[in-house]
Amino acid sequence: MTDTLMSRKQLKEIYNCPDTKEINVIYKLLNWKLSKKLSEGEKNDIFDPAFNLKRSGKSDEEIRQELSDKIENEPDSKQSYSLEDLLNITKEDGLLIKASELVNLLQCCGLPEKDEYAQDEFETFLSACQLYKKEGKTYAEIAAHFKIEPESDKVTTNLADNLLVVTQEISDINAKEIGVQAGKDLVEVNRAISAGIVYGTLARLQNMTRTGELDALVKQQFRQGATDSLGKQLTQRVQQHLLERGETQTPHLLTEAREIKQLPQAEENPSP
């Protein structure tokens, strides 16, 4: 008869821990991957003694010496975590991360999207998830925590180019409407830059326009006077683009967009 394997979530309940943080500490001390599930024997012979020694105030080094015959000498050098592991482990830790949030949080802590992540990279990602879900930090605050800054010049150029594509795709709208829409897009651009992270650019803007999220955002942002030199720079590029297309009445994008300030306050989306 095979043993029933225990997850970290089950261990948390067995040892009456408020969360899995204390369990994770013991896993790391024992050089175990966080996705490892324990047999009854591993729990009783290795995890339990280590857990009790840690709670009694013993240092990691003292615990390793006392359990030297049971602890793996070195962590698996090939130990890694897939994107699926990231979602499953954070869920087990009570941090329900959506796929879209996963990508944003990876960027916030300076990690690229890839197939596998090393142990230290996973721990960085887990810290970002805890800041987001447990402490309610925004993406901007998390990026600041990890000292992540955007590549300003590259970002500005890419966003400006994408904004021109947006104006081309709505060419059937009259000049004034184009002006208001571009003004809305500029606000989203400015918000993304100020947050230190740029997400999805064109696809994101188009989706926000379809769902009405962009309209709600611009009302809120202009109410706070959210315009800056980047907005003016992008406005000039859009105006030049429209002139080159033969538009005789070039919209004053920011002037048109400021009129939105007078509209009723939009209902804010609930925080994650």
Characterise the protein shown here.
- With 272 residues, this protein is mostly helical.
- The protein has three domains: 59 residues, no CATH class; 66 residues, no CATH class; 111 residues.
- It has 14 helices and two strands.
- It has a two-stranded antiparallel sheet.
- Helix 6 packs parallel to helix 8.
- It is elongated, with a radius of gyration of 25 Å.
- The C terminus is likely disordered.
Topology record:
Layout lengths: L7 H7 L6 H9 L10 H16 L4 H7 L13 E3 H10 L6 H10 L7 E3 H15 L5 H7 L6 H18 L5 H21 L5 H11 L1 H11 L5 H16 L8 H6 L14
The spatial strand order of the largest sheet comes to 1-2
DSSP E strands, number: 2
The span between the termini is 44 Å
Rounded mean pLDDT is 70
